[in-house]
Specification:
This protein has four helices and eleven strands, in the order E-E-E-E-E-E-E-E-E-E-E-H-H-H-H. The chain is of the alpha+beta class and about 200 residues long. The radius of gyration is 57 Å and the shape is rod-shaped. The termini are far apart.
């Protein structure tokens, strides 16, 4: 059995309705499908199936049912694929008859909320991912301070070793033993030479 879809559109919106067996269209709960159109009667138009045939009949509505520009009167008339019905003030119904598809029919108005529309720029930014951050730079001031402290400690250690190496006791200062080793050896050699010279002169005399 062919699938029959009613594409309904008016000032309140649009919707698709799959016709299973029969539907009565109007503006109150007395109808199967209620539409927001003040020009519709309580029960305005009925569309039904008879096997593979689709028929439409007007329910003695105030403004009638117009099929492809002609008002329906009397008995039900057959509908074909592409036919257009006009009812009420501004409601149009386009008939679509074709092979059944896997698409699920929609029997409620399709509304689009603007708040759910995400800007294109936001989508692009989400797809592009996070921007690579710049490499972190090491702080220069703490490094410089650390180097200065290390240099001061190193110089203090060197100065300490130099001071302890050449530091003399009071007794050493009296005998002049606080001089560097090379100078002390030099003076000892000169003293030995002078002593030897004096001894030689005494022997000769």
């Amino acid at each position: 059995m062919d699938q029959v879809t009613l594409h309904i559109e008016n000032s309140s919106g649009r919707q698709d309705y799959e016709l299973v067996q029969e539907v009565t269209i109007g503006r109150t709960d007395a109808s199967t499908l209620v539409l927001s159109d003040s020009g519709l009667s309580r029960r305005n138009t009925t569309i039904f199936r008879d096997g593979d045939t689709v028929l439409v009949v007007d329910e003695n509505s105030l403004n009638g049912t117009i099929l492809n520009g002609s008002k329906i009167t009397g008995a039900a008339q057959e509908l074909r694929d592409g036919d257009v019905l006009r009812i009420g003030s501004d409601t149009s119904i386009r008939i679509s008859i074709g092979a059944a598809t896997s698409q699920t029919s929609i029997q409620q108005p399709i509304t689009v909320e603007r708040s759910n529309i995400t800007p294109v720029a936001a989508n692009i930014s989400q797809l592009s991912g996070p921007v690579a951050s710049e490499p972190k730079r090491l702080p220069l001031i703490p490094i410089a301070a650390g180097l200065m402290i290390f240099a001061i400690i190193f110089l203090a250690i060197v100065a300490y070793f130099v001071a302890t190496r050449y530091r003399c006791s009071p007794a050493q200062r009296q005998v002049n033993l606080c001089r560097p080793s090379r100078l002390r050896q030099r003076y000892q050699c000169e003293s030995s030479i002078r002593s030897a010279g004096k001894t030689k002169m005494i022997s000769t005399t």
